[in-house]
């Protein structure tokens, strides 16, 4: 199955879908929330406590945030990676994405259990978004075509 021409880069490889970048940014939200809390002058800890009521929950979120940032960097600099003949990294991309999504879902369920399944909007929206992104990553034809194309070109 082919994609429209605008979904290919100059080298003829399939570009990553923009929802993949959005998903990786979502998975890196621990770092985003941390940076936002540093810029909040009055009380940075307040913003962190909204998303992560207990400190260890924030540290758990970094287990997915750091690999997500690294994956974003590898996707962003994919032309340089291919020019340096290091495209073999992309063969493991499905495993990395699966690890990130599954570990994020497990962490979110753990946080929900630690809160005794009490309803809170930040937790509910985060868990709902995680399930939506997991569903997208499993069903995306564009992502499957991209991974198959990159496997052939690496």
The averaged pLDDT comes out at 87
Strand/helix succession: HHHHHHHH
Approximately what portion of the residues adopt beta-strand conformation?
A: under 5%
The overall strand count is: 0
Helix % is over 70%
Describe the main β-sheet briefly: none
Query: Which structural class matches the secondary elements?
Result: mainly alpha
Radius of gyration: 17 Å
Segments where pLDDT lies below 50 for 5+ residues? none
Separation of termini? 20 Å
Number of helical stretches of at least 4 residues: 8
Anisotropy-based shape? elongated
Describe this structure in words.
- There is one protein chain.
- By secondary structure, the protein is mainly α.
- 72% of the residues lie in helices and 0% in strands.
- The protein contains eight helices and no strands.
- It has helices spanning 18-27, 29-39, 44-51, 55-76, 78-83, 93-114, 121-139, 141-153.
- The protein starts with 17 loop residues before the first helix and ends with a helix.
- The model has no long low-confidence stretch (mean pLDDT 87).
In short:
With 154 residues, this protein is mainly α.
Can you lay out the helices and strands and say which pair or pack?
Elements: H1 18-27, H2 29-39, H3 44-51, H4 55-76, H5 78-83, H6 93-114, H7 121-139, H8 141-153
